Please model this.
Amino acid sequence: MSSVELDLRRLDPGLAPRQSDVAAAVDADRVRVRGPVHGLAAVLAVLLKAGRTAVVPVAWEPAADKDSTGLARDLGIGSGEPRNLSLVRDDHGGVLLHHGRVEAAGDGRRSLSRRIGLQAHHDDIRIADGEVTRIDVRPDWLAVDTIGVTVMVQPLRPTQRTSGRALQVASDPARILRDGVPFPRPVSRWTWYADDRVRWRLDP
Model:
């Protein structure tokens, strides 16, 4: 059995690994990933593209940052048996494990002072239609094929929270963050969804 270890501990925050850093996962029978959340997400995206998420067990040694610690707790890293988990993906080939965001295009500075015009649906519920500050998305690891969505219309005002399978956004040019990594260009349409046809295999 071919086992591959990918050491991504030196991966900088907000920077996706190079394709060559994770390519070895495609042909492996088992993968161990060491590093932050966005490193693990990149490995799963490679396996997803190859159609191998359900057959390649993935073990993860999380980094010490806050997001990694939180996701490790949610996934029960270090305890339990191998199990098949939901996979939250987007319509641009990416995978979301911990936290996604839609906000006004820019470099992310003073993000709370900028607003973006958009319309968003969470399943069949329209959750935004007009200007908002941002939309946050998190996979719900206590449920199956579910994402939680929070809409912030204005800073320091109550937010709207919903739970469902898919989020669809049509907007002015938007900045997308996937587990802290910015998508390379602004987009005007984006979808995150928990794909009920696909699973990934966690070896905790």
User: Anything to note?
Assistant: The chain is about 15% helix and 45% strand. The chain has two domains: 3-88, 100-195. The longest helix spans residues 37-49. The mean pLDDT is 95.
